[in-house]
Inverse folding.
């Protein structure tokens, strides 16, 4: 379980007695607080613990941030202390405002692309190969399609819809999702087959990358939330950036990000543009199943821990169904959406 004994969490780094605690805006999987004491300030991120094992999200974030900081990357928080027993990670505080709350500019797009290139460059540093694969990393088409099937099967077996929405959920899981999956996977399989992405084409990735996880500082953008960090296919990074429901950027800026990233990565991954075009529709199908996780009761415990909305309000579930439907549209129009 998580601890609210703040002093015990930050004492190992010599932090003075905690005087003030502020809840920060967080995602659906963790709690994030800013702690102040004396003239110092840190962030404590608490992870949902399942059973007695340490959170894999916490381990990925700690190891990833330590590696990046040791590699000289300063546009991320520094991991100051890690307490697996309490499920708490102490991070340096980055002063700024959430990037997604203000208009995104071409300068921001360039900063995002620069950051991905920086991650690619650190992939050659000592210790990089010791890092895990990113969450849901897929280096073969089969890895991606099997992952989507697993998510869909879980929704079919465990999904529970409020009264009045059963038919809508069933129609998605038995109709629209399988249809979109079959179409996208057939097209990708015809061209990619059983290829495995070579080591040289893989990159380090936050695996949940976008302006929803960026902070606007006086020095520029900084990026946070590395609990899915690891080795990944850059085609997935691009597709997730384009499709992520937490981002809403202009079409020309979205296309600029895709073009810029493809240009910067083309030297060591000449097949990236084709993979992005072929896999993008499948990632749209995957995102539709992620959006429907709202209907899986087992996911409610983590949402409750993170203090996300766990009410039984039917409108919340209906909103997820609408988002999933819209995401499936992108399985057909991904190339246009990405400006490819």
């Amino acid at each position: 379980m998580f601890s609210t004994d703040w002093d015990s969490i930050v004492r190992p780094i010599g932090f003075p007695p905690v005087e003030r605690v502020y809840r920060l805006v967080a995602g659906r999987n963790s709690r994030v607080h800013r702690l102040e004491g004396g003239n110092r300030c840190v962030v404590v991120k608490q992870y949902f613990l399942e059973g007695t094992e340490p959170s894999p999200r916490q381990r990925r974030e700690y190891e990833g941030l330590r590696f990046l900081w040791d590699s000289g990357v300063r546009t991320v928080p520094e991991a100051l202390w890690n307490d697996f027993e309490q499920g708490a990670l102490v991070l340096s505080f980055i002063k700024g405002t959430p990037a997604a709350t203000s208009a995104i500019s071409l300068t921001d797009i360039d900063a995002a692309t620069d950051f991905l290139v920086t991650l690619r460059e650190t992939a050659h540093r000592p210790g990089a190969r010791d890092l895990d694969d990113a969450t849901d990393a897929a280096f073969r088409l089969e890895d991606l399609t099997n992952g989507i099937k697993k998510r869909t099967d879980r929704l079919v077996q465990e999904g529970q819809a409020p009264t009045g929405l059963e038919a809508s959920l069933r129609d998605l899981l038995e109709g629209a999702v399988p249809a979109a999956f079959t179409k996208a996977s057939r097209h990708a399989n015809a061209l990619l087959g059983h290829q495995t992405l070579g080591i040289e084409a893989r990159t380090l990735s936050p695996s949940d990358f976008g302006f929803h996880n960026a902070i606007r500082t006086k020095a520029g953008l900084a990026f946070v939330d590395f609990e899915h960090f690891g080795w990944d296919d850059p085609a997935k990074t691009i597709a997730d950036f384009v499709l992520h429901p937490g981002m809403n950027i202009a079409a020309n800026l979205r296309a600029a990000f895709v073009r810029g990233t493809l240009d910067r990565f083309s030297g060591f991954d000449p097949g990236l543009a084709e993979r992005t075009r072929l896999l993008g529709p499948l990632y749209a199908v995957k995102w539709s199943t992620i959006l429907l996780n709202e209907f899986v009761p087992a996911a409610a415990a983590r949402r409750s821990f993170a203090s996300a909305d766990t009410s039984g309000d039917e409108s919340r579930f209906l909103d997820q169904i609408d988002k999933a439907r819209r995401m499936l549209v992108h399985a057909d129009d991904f190339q246009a959406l990405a400006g490819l």
